[in-house]
Amino acid sequence: MRTFKFISLLFITLFIFQSCQDNDDVATPVNLEVQDFIWKGLNQYYLWQSDVPNLSDDRFANQTELNAFLTGYPVPKDLFNALRVNSSIDRFSWIVDDYLVLEQALGGISKNDGVDFGLSYKPGSTTEIFGYVRYILPNSDASNKDIKRGDLFTGVNGTQLTISNYQSLLSGESYTLNLATYNGTTIVDNGKSVALTKSVLAENPIFINKVIESGSHKIGYLMYNGFYAAYDTQLNDAFATLKSQGITDFVLDLRYNSGGSVLTATRLASMITGQFTGEVFAKQQWNAKINAYYEAENPEALKNIFTDKIGSVSINSLNMTTVYILTTKSTASASELVINGLKPHVNVVQIGDITTGKNVGSVTLYDSPTFGTQNRNPNHRYAMQPIVLKIVNSVGFGDYFNGLIPNYQLKETISTFGVLGSTSEPLLSTAIGKITGSGKMVKLSTGKEFDYFKDTKSIQGLQNQMYLEKAPEGLLKALE
To answer: Percentage of the chain with pLDDT > 70?
Structure first.
């Protein structure tokens, strides 16, 4: 919590400094309040602030000049995008017009029918795509329907999915998926369909937690699908279960985990290990002016430290010296942080595909005096999730923009998906073989590879984040 208390103090200090600069007795017009919030928030915290001329600290002499600039962007999202660096550099900053939806999404809560899927291009096409089911969420509408992992679909309500229409087709409250099969050449409709309805659904990220016995090995296997801080206690309980069974080895399945809380990532790394309490897990690199402030006032606040507690509760640690981590193209942000952060400390054996390559983190900014949740502007619900920092491991490495390369590269294919958690599922089977020395990497030559396009969480966007936890009410009390 030390880091986050200091962050909150920094936010307040910087905001006061900015307010002094803008104190020219000119108010922000009501119709520009959102735009004013966007500019000031990005000016203070955006990682690439120094690379955007219109975000320069001396770009506007006073509020009057800033207001004149903001009038050129009547649509807030247009201003937000105009103040970002090129999208090839900043791929992950977001703005929303309803922070309630943002807060739910960052906690794993969304309007969901229960089908977690990936999207790929149809063979020979650069516009038409198809979906494949990766897993079904328990207690969802899909869990009661005839649809399962490995099923394919090409259309929604009879319309072929394309890179132009997939968002609108899949965003409906209810729809019918048109199912398909792979005929050895391409993906074709098979005449079957399934009707699905979305409801507000909270995804427990602890999808599978079990022990696999193979010879003298007791292998703990955890499939973990999202770094949602609300489930940290349950995650700790899952590790307690593994620990109580005396596991000798550990496989962490992050193949569909696109990220989440930095705090949760630090806790997970501490559960896997336990022998590094108090040592550096990762280090934060903010924009130049915030970094300078930290380095001058409290350089320790830039560090994320291995811990042995969640609040006052002891962490159930496994004291592993080797961990096997399963990955795909969908493995991103906080998942990559765990892999990269553990590498200087233990032997990390990565099995699967190259990861997304998200080495930067964000924070939720609200339109309030401190950019926190207290005293938010009642006139709107806009909030931003801009990239504010890069995270490196304890030895300073964090350059994996193109993804983390596995030790054993093994791509999932729809024809060899297998059952998640089964010892015959290709990725898990490979990990077991490497642990026991009894098997070689599974050959997937019979599986057809398709060009990856998107997946459920990257489509939703808000769940494809690595973010700092904020509890402004508690932090403000600490600052009194």
So the answer is: 89
Give a three-class secondary structure readout of 62-120.
CHHHHHHHHCCCCCHHHHHHHCCCCCCCCCCCEEECEHHHHHHHHCCEEEECCEEEEEE
Pick the closest to residue 96 from 116, 113, 110 (CA basis): 110
Contact (Cβ atoms closer than 8 angstroms) between residue 334 and residue 259: yes
**Can you give the length of the chain in residues?**
480
Q: Are the C-beta atoms of residues 216 and 248 closer than 8 Å to each other?
A: yes
- What is the Cα–Cα distance from 88 to 154, expressed in whole angstroms? 29
* Calpha distance 163→170 (Å, rounded): 12
Residue 254 near residue 327, CB atoms below 8 Å:
yes
Confirm if 239 and 207 have CB atoms less than 8 A apart. no
Rounded-to-10 torsion of CA 74, 75, 79, 84:
-170
The tens digit of pLDDT for each residue in 352-399 reads 999 999 999 999 999 999 898 989 999 999 999 999 999 999 999 999
Which one, of 51, 91, 33, lies nearest residue 379 by Cα? Answer: 33
pLDDT digits (tens, 9 = 90+) for 212-244: 999 999 999 999 999 999 999 999 999 999 999
Q: How far is CA 64 from CA 22, 36, 69, 77, in A?
A: 9, 11, 9, 21
Residue that the structure tokens 């998906």 belong to: 417
- At residue 448, the pLDDT reads 76
Pairing of strands 452-455, 115-121: antiparallel
The distance of Cα 258 from the centroid of its chain, to the nearest Å, equals 4
